[in-house]
Amino acid sequence: MRAVIDGARRASGGYGQETVLFLDEIHRFSKAQQDSLLPAVENRWVTLVAATTENPYFSVISPLLSRSLLLTLQALTDDDLRGLLRRALTDERGLGGAVTLAEDAEAHLLRIAGGDARRALTALEAGAGAAIAKGEPEIGLQTLEETVDRAAVKYDRDGDQHYDVASALIKSIRGSDVDATLHYLARMIEAGEDPRFIARRLMISASEDIGLADPTALATAVAGAQAVAMIGFPEARITLSQVAIALALAPKSNAAYLAIDAALADVRAGLAGAVPPHLRDGHYKGAEKLGHAQGYVYPHDLPGGIAAQQYAPDAVHGKRYYEPTRYGAEARYADVVERVRQRLSGE
């Protein structure tokens, strides 16, 4: 690199020639090595073009970054790759129409490419070679699977398979079958499902199917979703596996789910009613004349912190929405809620 820069400096000063220096994977250069580029950039001995797959704000020194124009290249979309593959099939620089590509084989190619054009073209070339060797005019799915040594997963991210496999994942967690859970999770990952979608489903399951039987389940699912959003695939598969296993093996309770739905049903049926006067806001002028907050008993002033007074509106006073199970940690809540209800009723 020093030799190139010395040559560029001489060409710039003596011959007025411009030199373009392209550095691939600049994140592999140490800070000292990156520092050595600064004089060449500042004196315009070279026009530096650098590429990195890492976050440049972490992998490139600030002085060099501040003197650069940053361009972010996004992964190719399926439509981009589809157009590329179809041109490669017909263009004389490619396969020149020697074979065609079956629709399901094309979908498999798009999935295994993962937005990488080189990977897509390499797999296409391998599949074409195998089809031609067999004397087949079309690259079929089976030929492609044999060539790239990767089975096609029957999974449509926009169709029935998307919802069916997601449903099976959640029902396997609910049924505490950890092995089936991992199978459906693997199918979703292998098919290229959005990891954020999987993480959202796991968070829902943590509340709907586990709830207070294991109060840490939701925290685990939320932490997993945050980690997935930060790291992405392929490493996110490990986080999703950890969360899914924890949820599948956790004690189960849908009491929280049933409780809110029962309360919502009453509200929607018109069982709302006025807030009891002693619970109303009494922090404004005139509230006392209206009787607001009068007679309210402050629970912290009493032993045990529980005041025997009415909290719910008359229409639903005495109704029970939350019925805790005796599973896992919720057994403790079952004992607590029964004692609290008795004290609230003055028993």
What order do the helices and strands come in, and which of them pair?
Blueprint: H1 2-15, E1 19-23, H2 31-35, H3 38-42, E2 46-50, H4 56-59, H5 62-66, H6 78-90, E3 100-101, H7 103-113, H8 117-134, E4 138-139, H9 141-148, H10 160-174, H11 178-190, H12 195-210, H13 216-231, H14 236-249, H15 255-268, H16 330-344
Helix pairs in contact: 6-7, 6-8, 7-8, 8-9, 10-11, 10-12, 11-14, 12-13, 12-14, 13-14
- The portion of residues forming beta strands comes to under 5%
Task: Summarize model confidence as the mean pLDDT.
Answer: 84
Radius of gyration: 32 Å
Biggest sheet layout: 2 strands, parallel
> Rough shape?
elongated
Helix/strand-derived category reads mainly alpha
InterPro entries: AAA_assoc_2, AAA_ATPase_RarA/MGS1/WRNIP1, DNA_pol3_clamp-load_cplx_C, MgsA_C, P-loop_NTPase
Domain AAA C-terminal: 98-174
Keywords: ATP-binding, Nucleotide-binding
Protein name: Replication-associated recombination protein A
